[in-house]
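Limitations

Structures in this collection are predictions, not experimental determinations, and the ligand pose is part of the prediction. Treat each record accordingly. The example that follows, with FE2/S2 (inorganic) cluster as the small molecule, is included so readers can see exactly what is and is not provided: the inputs are given verbatim, and the output is the predicted complex.
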Amino acid sequence: MVYNHHIFVCTNQKDEIGKAVAKALKIEVKKHGLKSLLIGGTKHKNRVQTCNCLDACKQCKKGPGAAVVIYPEGVFYGNVRPKDAADIVREHLAAGRVITRLLID
Ligand code: FES
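Predicted complex:
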């Protein structure tokens, strides 16, 4: 099995926004049929996983949203809220376009 994308969401905020972001991302991945793909006979997965800190705390603890990193690109998004999940899945995962408004400087 190969990971097409591996998404890590920080859940180290007091208001637990990261957990809500991770849940929204999982729902969107499933909704778009991207959870598990068969490409050239190989099984690929898009996985959303929570973690404690991504070293992007300014974009996480102080803002209204959570920090997110997507591999293999290594793209960091900041202040991500549950309402951003659909854009991340549709634009980044499905279309391969980075969402500039969420990028961490
Ligand atoms: S606390 Fe979320 S990135 Fe550090």
